[in-house]
Input
Amino acid sequence: MKRSIHNHSIANVAQFKQQMLYWAQGQQTLLWLDSNDHSDAHSTFDALLAVGVSSSLCCKQSTQGFEQLDAYRNKAQDWIFGQFSYDLKNDLEALHSLNEDFMQFPELYFFQPKKIFILRGKMLTQLYLPDIQEQAKTDFKAIKNQVILPKNGSNKLKVEARFTKSEYLSKVEKMLFHIQRGDIYEANFCQEFKAHGTLDALQTYQHFNEISQAPFAAYFRQAEKYVLCTSPERYLQKKGDKIISQPIKGTSRRSSDPKEDLALATALLTDEKERSENIMITDLVRNDLSRIAQKGSVRVDELCGIYSFRQVHQLISTISATVNPEISLIELIKKTFPMGSMTGAPKVSAMQIIEHLENHKRGMYSGALGYFTPDGNFDFNVLIRSILYDSANAKISFSVGSAITVLSDPEKEYHECLLKAKAMREVLGDFK
Output
């Protein structure tokens, strides 16, 4: 579908980004993606906003969800934005999810927006459906005049962990038993934290984003369901005939002391256990990409690169490939989903054991948010470092996890989870 194009120069980009979000917050459906000024060879925009619904696809309990999405995308012939739940794995393998689903998000939701806003540097591009193109000028003026409201107070919520510490340690010991027996050699084991109460979703997201400044941040609303995301991780991007994945494995805390902070980053880069986590998942992602790539085209462009974010240091690898032209767009997703960093290796065995040892249905957590373009490109993050909110039922959830390998110390894995939970607890007002 051909959209009308409207370009504008923006003087104060930081302020305009806030105005866009405040202007859009009244919409029942919107997706905001923000790179937070992180830029690399694979960046395509600084921020992107999709609002309004021309058409949509919602699969609450998915069977053949990917096939439905393929038909929907082919019919729309346009930009579509949305989310994949982790539990779509059950569509791809002989797997199931019987744990409690506290948040009950759809397993798959995509929408064709009426209005799209793309920021690149100081240039804003509006892409509007033909029947509403006359609204572009009015909307731009309204955004420029949008008042940014003062914060209306902090959250003060009590967060509860589904696992006690002793339960968590016991589960990790069982995971280690599976590794020592040879069932798997790595798995991402996660725990859920939950709360009851109400949030100002937008202001909570802005606080969350301010203290995290992650490259794949997102604010997603679909009716009463919200995702407040500060993910540092890219799941999969297709640009032309190239595809890349950037798994994260290996985490260290930050320090306000520059010398200690540098020492922490250096220690992470040389840590045998942390590097082995990353290398094993890099190998898994290489294998996933080999299923969709032209023979001999899979490359590890960067192995265990050290990247520093507001809350943590991380090890990130970049794997690229040339797409096999015989593989359909949806097959590219199906043969690589869920992200290897959130499952383990071997992938199916790890997912089976994860399901048995975890006590919650992951749902949106460790799924993906992103978009497809009309010309067959796409980009999706890994949905981690995220708060899920159901305003209708006053329910809030976030999950954190760590990679368990034969070198894992259960006590250290527990403290890594608490480190990753720190920012979520802070914005929810729970400072334990």
Summary: The radius of gyration is 21 Å.
